[in-house]
Design brief:
The protein is α/β, with parallel strands linked by helices. Helix content is about 25%, strand content about 30%.
């Protein structure tokens, strides 16, 4: 196994990728981080709308599953497209879900759909369609538009190619006018790349252990 499960400071768990030496979420609180950044600063900008979400770095599926749970309250109709080059093994996925009490309302049958079945659209519910694509983001050619992008790659120090302006451009080009790009990384090179691509970049307060995160919006014209 290329991953190991580890505890984080909010009592939730994450995986550590042994090859990259990086965790899938913050060791200061995996669930707290995901909710703070992707749910509160991203998903909650939409209510009772028909939206498509692109996630770069699907990983454990935590962001996707928390989006599904929160969306029951928000009432959006969602197409969720996750990109992942190295899907985690089923065993690691199952263990992760079992350890994550924030996912308790997801039944085992539904959890299985979040973990298995790549490169096909799956109806999780009437209002949530999931498409997990196993591909390298650097070779990914988007062919649909998005309203919201969760950019959750490993850090620019570990995988600078994921954050290149060229790679960001191809997904920003597919973001709807007024759409949002959310990421945990507030490094200067990321902010600059987003500004070069015409995005309005806002530095927002981060979760525990992180001063800032980025919420960037596409010009509304
Ligand atoms: C920070 S983790 C993502 C955590 C995830 N969003 C979650 O909710 O668990 C980064 C992810 O990017 C994936 N990744 C690494 N290189 C990639 C590539 N070239 N293309 C697509 N995904 C990649 C890793 O395997 C890992 O799952």
């Amino acid at each position: 196994m290329n991953t190991e499960i580890i505890g984080t400071l909010d009592g939730s768990f994450t995986l550590r990728n042994k090859y990259y030496g990086e965790t899938y979420h913050s060791i200061n609180g995996a669930v707290a981080e995901s909710i703070h950044i992707f749910i509160n600063l991203g998903l909650k900008l939409f209510e009772r709308q028909d939206i498509s979400i692109l996630e770069i770095g699907y990983g454990t599926g935590l962001n996707a599953m928390l989006t599904f749970i929160e969306n029951k309250r928000l009432g959006n109709k969602i197409l969720y497209h996750g990109i992942e080059k190295y899907p985690i093994e089923n065993e690691a996925f199952t263990k992760f879900v079992e350890h994550t009490s924030a996912l308790a309302e997801i039944t085992p049958e539904v959890a299985t759909k979040f973990g298995e079945g790549w490169n096909e659209e799956i109806d999780i519910s009437e209002t949530f369609k999931l498409y997990k694509q196993k591909t390298d983001f650097c070779e990914f050619v988007p062919d649909r538009n998005y309203d919201l992008i969760y950019f959750d790659a490993f850090s620019p120090d570990t995988q600078p190619e994921m954050w290149s302006e060229e790679n960001l451009r191809k997904i920003i080009d597919k973001l709807a006018p007024g759409g949002f790009f959310i990421t945990y990384c507030s490094k200067g090179i990321v902010k600059q790349a987003l500004r070069n691509l015409g995005m309005i970049v806002r530095r927002m307060p981060g979760p525990a252990g992180k001063r800032h995160v980025l919420q960037a919006q596409k010009n509304n014209q």
